[in-house]
Specification:
This protein has helices at about 5-30, 35-65, 75, 80-85, 90-100, 105-115, 150-170. By secondary structure, it is mainly alpha-helical. The longest helix has 30 residues, at about 35-65. The chain is globular, with a radius of gyration of 20 Å. Mean pLDDT is about 85; it is low at about 140-145.
Length: about 170
């Protein structure tokens, strides 16, 4: 494998695709451990998607010779402070996507960071046994839905599209 920055991004996108394929197979298999396999592949896909994002950040930072070019976390590069030193349009687009909670990139970052959180028991309303049971609808936190394969594949395609578009712009100079 060449030691170019783009190879790591491509590799991680490929690995994420493999994990998503394995996740789909695990979901349809009748194996006793199918649920565990599906969860493992979901986590692997998120891990590799984050790695692809980090690889893309390294590509951009390396091209512009940023001092943070070897940052071990994408969040280090996806801050407005990085843009203060030099205006980088590719990095500005990533920073904007990362800071808006509803975007696919912000969701990817949140999903990756959630991998390192301990499991939490769902909150249950406290009740007084002497009072009649009244259930308030809407005040309870909804359990977070598991990431779907389709959603993660969409993230993969978005990231792949960004990488291709950014590379075309970076090579024009």
């Amino acid at each position: 494998m060449a030691h170019e920055l783009y190879t790591r991004t491509n590799q991680k996108l490929f690995f994420a695709g493999l994990a998503l394929e394995a996740m789909a197979k695990a979901k349809t298999s009748g194996a006793m451990n199918a649920q565990g396999l599906e969860t493992a592949e979901r986590e692997a896909a998120v891990f590799h998607l984050y790695g692809a994002l980090l690889g893309l950040c390294h590509e951009i930072a390396g091209y512009y010779r940023l001092p943070q070019a070897n940052a071990p976390r994408a969040e280090t590069l996806l801050t407005p402070q990085v843009l203060e030193a030099i205006a980088i349009p590719e990095m500005a687009e990533l920073v904007e996507l990362a800071q808006q909670r509803e975007t696919w990139l912000a969701q990817l970052l949140a999903s990756y960071n959630a991998l390192f959180q301990p499991p939490r028991e769902p909150k249950k309303p406290k009740g007084d046994v002497t009072q009649p049971l009244i259930i308030s609808v809407g005040s309870q936190e909804q359990a977070e839905a598991e990431l779907s394969r389709e959603e993660m594949e969409s993230w993969r395609q978005q990231l792949k599209g960004l990488a291709i578009r950014f590379r075309e712009g970076l090579s024009e100079c």
